[in-house]
Every structure is written in structure tokens, then in C-alpha cells.
Amino acid sequence: MLDAVVVGAGPNGLTAAVELARRGFTVALFEARSTVGGGARTAELTLPGFRHDPCSAAHPLGISSPAFRALPLDRYGLRWLHPELPMAHPFPDGTAAVLARSVGKTAASFGPRDAGSYRRLVEPLVARWDTLVRDFMSLPSTALPRDPLTLARFGLAGLPPSTWLMRRFKDERVKALFAGLVAHVMAPLDGFATGAIGLVFALAAHAHGWPVARGGSQAISDALTAHLTDLGGAVHTDYEVKRLDDLPPARAYVFDTSPAALARIAGFGGYYDRYRYGPGVFKIDYALDGPVPWTAPEARVAGTVQIGASQAEIGTALRAASREGRAPERPFMITVQPSVVDPTRAPAGKQVFWAYGHVPNGWSGDLTDAMERQLERFAPGFRDRVLARAVAGPAELAAHNANYVGGDIACGAASGLQLLLRPRPTLFPYHTPHPAVFICSSATPPGPGVHGMSGHNAARAVWRRLRQT
């Protein structure tokens, strides 16, 4: 009998399996797809030689992750590549606000009215980032924070809605940048704890950057898989699990799946019926005949570029997708241009480009024209650079990764109390009604992103049980 079986080879399932194998437990992992990776995969989606990331592409939480930083992933080929700027937020007039590695350079891009406010907000937290990120990404799986004072300071600034946090700033450009940071988890700007989301992304940029993985996000998953097999773990692909009886006998079962899928497989009935799924995304991967022609010079050297002309425009787009059930006319967009720092991703002189906008969960329309009209506002002539595009709406994304219910790449709405208390309001989020069954997907704390911490935290709960039995 195995000690543990893990279902789902996304970053969290892989991390959970690695953590258990590191502690001497026998582990087997089962993945329904033909390749491992979940939200961290890479494939030629458009033309030969153009390597795209079907989901996550830039990794501010990955490089900051306590789980990943504790593992020898560089030994297995993972290389983080840092663009000149982690992120740029251009405006139609050709200017841009930026997130630089340096707090000072970032503050300088905000102008004299807001530079001091920004420094006072982030500098004390950046200085304690590695401890802070371990504390908030480990709760509630650890009893006491290592630095409760810094965590409390972060909470005071971040737990109110992001609209409160933005009152510290006068310049509309700074407010737009922060609104864009919040929108990375598709949460309305006036929601509970949305200020914390914006702060996390800003602090991560200053502490460790917003890198891409050399060769594509698949490199993260491949490194975790190679480490797992070196530790004696077994990985089985093309193995779809429809019920617990499909799996070999084990002392514990760990699911990197949506709560709905787990309830169906394990026979939990309506246990997770109150869990809400959030807006979906409409994603386009481009093969380009050269760089994106941004009018703002800063955007040309940034790995990630946020597209939204103002806080109001971004807020309108988020409300349309999350509350009004319609696609926005001017979608807020997150774009990533890996080729500015990774020449392995496309043939010489060409580039790959990644963009998505928010749409209602399960939406079946086509956002291509609206997204490209937005891009043309900030990069005139963009369409002339397009060699090919691969379009994926909510249905296609869900078919690619079953955890993306209705196109929700966060595996559950990151809003309200569910941002913190997921998948149910409990101090034991990784446990289920069955004492030997656990959940470790992004539906558990700390939530969405390629960081492995949900898997790491769930593994702690599993090995505690295994040592008791």
C-alpha cells in the first residue's frame, strides 16, 4: 500500500507529492492529461518554433514562493529570466507608470506628489518580505506567524478594499497601476482585502521580480517532476480518475482538483455546493513578426504589461465580467511578452505574446476584436505584427484544464471572504469529510498562482495524519 496518492499534476499537486516524498513517504501521482503542468505548461499553439504558455507566463509568486525556494529546482533546469522592468502600465498618451525592482525607481515614475507615499507604504514591508510571504502564504497551516508585527502592518494596509488603499495617492496613473494589480485575481476593486492583492504583487516585484521561466512555464513543472522521480515518486499521465476506486490503495489521497470535481470523485454530495466560481478569461496567444509597437518606451522592456487607461475603466471592466454578466467593451488586459528576455521562445526576430481579458464565467462569445482594439490604443500597428493567433475562451480553457471551471483560472472566486477562507470557512481547509482525503488545489489557501504553496500546506496536513496512523 502506498502512503499517498496525488491526483492532478499541476504545480500544487506536484509540490504536495514532492514534499511528501522528501519526508520518506511512498507517493504516486496521477494526471489525466498526457503531460504534467496544469496551469504551468508550454506548447506550440500557433506556428512551429513559437513556444507559448497556455495559462500562466510570468511568475512573481513563483520566484517568491517559500515552497519553491526550498527545493533544488535549478538542478533540474529551472532558470528564472528577469526583464529590465517587471511590469509597465502604459497610457494612451505614450507615458507609463512602472513597477521596477527598485522601490526608488518605481516611486520616481509616480511623480513627486506620490513618491513619498509609495515609499512609506512599501519600504518597511519589502525589508521583511521573505518572512512576510512565508507567514501569509502558510496560514492557516501553521499555528503562529514568525513576524506578527509585520503581518499586522500588512493586514492593516491590505484588508480594506483597494479603493481605500488608493486614496493614499493623488495621481490617477498610480491608481490605475494599483487597480491593474488587483485585477490579476479578477476581483472587483471595492472587495474585501483587495488592497492586499495589489500590495503582494508590488512587494514581490521589489523583492524578487516578475520573471519568466526560460523555455516556458513548463520548465517549472518539469523541474518538480524530475525532483519527484529522483525522490522515488511515480508519475502516471493519461490516467483519468472518475472515482476513488480508480486509484491504488493508499493511506492518504490528495486532490489538485476543483472542489466540484473532488466532490464528484469522492462522493461528497453537496459538501462544496456553496463554493463560488469567478469570472472567466478570454485568452489569445500571438506569434508576432517583431516586438509589440508600444508607444510608451517603458512597455517595450517590461515582461508584463497591464492594459487599462484608468482606475475607472479597469473598475468598469471588472464589474461587467464579475457582477453584470457581460463582456466589457474595453476589457482590462494582462499581457506578457516573454521574448523580451527569452530568445528561446520564438525564431530569430520574432516574438511570442500572451494576453487575456476578463469575461463572465462560462461566456461563449468572441472578445478578439475588443482586445485588439484595446491593444491598438497603446500599440498602434499591433495587428500588422500578427503572424498567427491561438484563441481560447472559457470553454476551451476548461477543456485544457478541468480546474478552470467556466474559464475561471483562479479555480474559484477570489472575492469576499472566499479570498481568504476557501474552499469552506474553516481552519482546516485542506481536510475533507473523509479523513484520508485532502484537497490541495488553488481552491485552498493561499489561492491562485503558480507558487505551489497550496500543495505545500496540504502536504503538512497529510504528513501529520500519516504520522498518527
From TrEMBL:
<dbReference type="InterPro" id="IPR036188">
    <property type="entry name" value="FAD/NAD-bd_sf"/>
</dbReference>
<dbReference type="Pfam" id="PF13450">
    <property type="entry name" value="NAD_binding_8"/>
</dbReference>
<protein>
    <submittedName>
        <fullName>NAD(P)/FAD-dependent oxidoreductase</fullName>
    </submittedName>
</protein>
